[in-house]
Amino acid sequence: MRVSTPYQFESYSSAIRKSQAEYFRVQQQVTTGKKFQYSSEDPLSASLSMSARSLKGRFEQYDKNLRGAKDYTQRGEQSMGEIATVLKQANVLAIQASSSSLDSNSLQSLATQITSLQETLVRHANAQGAGGQYIFSGHKTDTKPFTVAAGALTFNGDTNVIRAEVRAGEQMQINLQGADTLVADIYTALEDLKTRVQAGDTINISGVSLEEIQGLHDQVSGVRAELGNKLQTIEALSSENTRRTDDLTKEISDHEEVDLADAFTRYQQAETAYSAALQMASRGMQLSLMDFMR
Amino acid sequence: MSGPFLGINMASGALRNFQRAIDTAGHNIANVNTRGYSRQTVEYGTLPPLNFFNRGWKSVGQGSVITSVNRIRDQYLDLSLNNSQSQHGKYSSLATGLKRIDAIYGEPSDSGVSAALDKFFNAWSGLGSNPSDAAARAQVRMSGQVLTDRVRNRFQDLSVLETRTQSEIQGTMDQINGLAQQIAALNTQITTAAASGGSPNDLMDQRDLALSDLSKLVNVTKENFPDGSYAVYASGFTLVQGSQAREFPNSYNATNGTVTDGALTYTLKGGALAGQLASLKEVETQKGNLDTLANTLRTQINTPHMTGINAQGNTGIQFFNDVIAGPQNGAIDFNLSADIQASPNAIAAGLTGEPGDGSLAAMFAGMRDSSQAALGNVSFGKFFQDAVTKVANDAGYADSALETEESIMAQISQQQQAVSGVSIDDEMANLMKLQRSYQAAARALTVFDQVTEDLIGMLRR
Fold first, then answer.
1. In whole angstroms, what is the distance from residue A218 CA to residue A211 CA?
2. How many angstroms separate the CA atoms of A4 and B416, rounded?
3. Do A220 and A275 sit in the same domain of this protein?
């Protein structure tokens, strides 16, 4: 085939251009660590990576939601623990009061202690979460749920449920429902105990109050066990989230990032091709009939 | 009749002819880098012989004559190259246009619309899960602001790109008209030169070059006429006929990829113009997608949001800005409503307005996976991802088609160069040959001169 001079030079420079473009492309991959700059360079990877990123963002949000749920549940568990302590102390006081050998001064002192237990109960029943929200007042999180006026306990909250999204389409109840009646029952039981202590009604103290207090303590323990289970579920979900997030991070990196060992090999190849093209051009450009004519 | 000066005439004629051939070789070398130049060769012939009678009729040669100066060109290769250039021009401008859209979207990235959509719905999930948390509430407003900003900015960037593409289309049309006028003017010059018997090689090269340049902009066909002129048809539209160039139709339809001249519509099949129209169509489609996305978000979020009661105790509050009645504005002014912009407490997390009620927020969070009839029964995130993926795929396809067309074009151009291109080595060898021929002819002239001088000297004695 006839080779014209412009074509000869054009083919040298096009070979150089091509190998140079590949050389810089691979170089860029190595320096940025990214497979592509724009999604059009690898539409499939880009699209898979977009889905993975979206999913990862969601798991990170679930994780935040779980942290909120954990806070709610832990605080609930803590205050139920304190309430259980109140009941234990009430139990001790009731046993003391049931012995008939006490004088009225001692009984009065016991009654005062019971009043202070009631105050402690109300303080713990008005527990607040990390954000200052009252955790036992249903949806009315900015309202103090329990107030005492003239020795009577009032519940100001509601019994609505607060749910957190902890998995796709899965809602977990995070506040304690029915805390209002439980706290009210305990308050009333303590109030009854106080009345009986003041009256020196030892029969009913040992016959009714002690049983009531024991029963309520069992209820509180039940609630604590329930909250403990919930905490375990939260921990399990949380570690599953972490695992999924890690998997997705790896998946995104698989889609978007280059394998450096592979990229280095291709970089070597591209460099060889580029230098070969340069060498061939410099050799070919030197040859001319004019060098051989005198 | 043979005379003493026949030889001198013959030798000086040969000197003149070789001189012309050397000039042609020089012309070839001088134009080695001229675009569209075809190498030229000089063809020689013998002059009619001189008959004489010497025991019967005999003939003696009278020397050489230049019969023609030819342009070495393969018309078939021109045709193939022009077709290939049209396809190349189309995919090249399409790939450029689509990559610009791709670059505007900039996906996958944390700073894209896709990430903003995710964060928006995740923020609702956060608020739904912790309705009394002021930070979660602020997060919803911020992510909503980021989402509207990004949708709006992408839309503005696409609008700028739309204007830019439109002006590129106008520029291409101007170029087409300029080249058409050039071809028409060359037609006139070539016809005039051919009528007086000449062969205007360089003019013909220029005309072929103009046609070749034209084929990059629009798919062309040509028709040769006996007077040496061309008729040029661009996508079926008669662009040049003889010395007349017609204005290329200025009204176009990007959706159909057509231009319209009065009642006649021409479909563009190749050339940069076709690619630019297809790019413009894609820009308009993507603008439409963002409009749909913005309007659907408005409808789907605002309608339930307006039924809720916010932290300020108000109901009927829009989350995104929207018209009360009539057609929605789309992405161009997509933003949070003035109420939400004023305070995050304007957000209604629930239906009751109680600080712990996150039912609405939870419902919005669930909406990220629900398919939307207005988006063709896909979710918000999927709708946008699909749009991005389509552009990326189309750009990838245009790129690979471009690569194919590039190698076809290189092959044809190689063949054309093999035929028409100047080779310096060829020309140098040719020059050596001509130099030797010239030297020989000069030598012959000396001999004839000597003979003539001998004859004159003989007479003097």
1. 11
2. 10
3. no
Closest CA to B188 of B246, B249, B247, B240: B240
Residue A65: CA count within 13 A, CB half-sphere:
33
User: Does residue A26 share a domain with residue A131?
Assistant: no
Report the C-alpha gap between A174 and A187 in whole angstroms.
24
Q: State the residue for tokens 């999204």.
A: A165
Q: What values do phi and psi take at B70, rounded to 5?
A: -100, 155
d(CA B343, CA B337): 10
Helix intervals (H) in B235-314: 271-307
Of the candidates B122, B356, B422, the beta carbon closest to that of A4 is on B422
Number of CB atoms found within 10 A of residue A58's CB: 25
Show residues of chain A in contact with B130, CB under 8 Å: 65, 68, 131, 164
A208 and A288 in a single domain? The answer is: no
- Within 8 A by CB and 6+ apart from B133, the residues are A68, A131, A133, B126, B127
The string of pLDDT tens digits covering residues A120-145 is: 999 999 999 888 889 898 899 889 99
From A3, A8, A40, residue closest to B102, measured CB to CB: A40
| CB-closest option in B107, B130, B381 to A68 | B130
A chain contacts of residue B365, beta-carbon cutoff 8 Å: 165
Pairing type for strands B237-241 and B230-234 reads antiparallel
B40-67 per-position pLDDT tens digit: 999 999 999 988 898 999 998 889 999 9
Instruction: Tally Cβ neighbours within 10 Å of residue A280.
Output: 14
What span, in angstroms and rounded, lies between the C-alpha atoms of B367 and B370?
5
Phi, psi (rounded to 5 degrees) for A167 = -155, 165
Does the beta-carbon distance from A141 to B131 stay under 8 Å? Answer: yes
What's the gap in Å between the CA of A75 and the closest CA on chain B?
14
Domain locations along chain B: 6-72+425-460, 79-194+274-407
A163 and A26 housed in the same domain: no
> Which chain A residues are Cβ-neighbours of B106 within 8 angstroms?
38
DSSP lists the bridge partners of residue B233 as: B221, B238
Structural domain including A186 reads 66-238
Does one domain contain both A160 and A284? no
The number of folded domains in chain A is: 2
B119, closest residue in chain A (CA to CA):
A57
**What are A155's strand-pairing partners?**
A146
Nearest of B272, B271, B226, B244 to residue B181 by alpha carbon: B244
With a threshold of 0.90, does the pTM exceed it?
no
> Chain A: residue nearest B414 by CA?
A7
CA-CA distance, B366 to B352, in Å (whole number)?
19
Q: Which range, of A12-21, A38-47, A267-276, averages the lowest pLDDT? A: A38-47
Residues A72 and A212 in one domain: yes
Shared-domain flag, residues A201 and A276: no
CATH number for the domain spanning A190: value is 1.20.1330.10
Q: What is the pLDDT of residues A77-106, one digit of tens each?
A: 999 999 999 999 999 999 888 876 778 888
- Give dist(CA A189, CA A210) in Å, integer: 9
Chain B interface mutation, best of A14, A50, A65, highest count of B Cβ atoms under 10 Å: A50
Rounded Cα–Cα distance for residues B328 and B2 (Å): 101
Residue A102 main-chain phi, psi, to 5 deg: -85, 145
For B57, the token pair is: 């009729």
Instruction: Evaluate whether residue A206 is within a structural domain.
Output: yes
Whether residues A277 and A135 share a domain: the answer is no
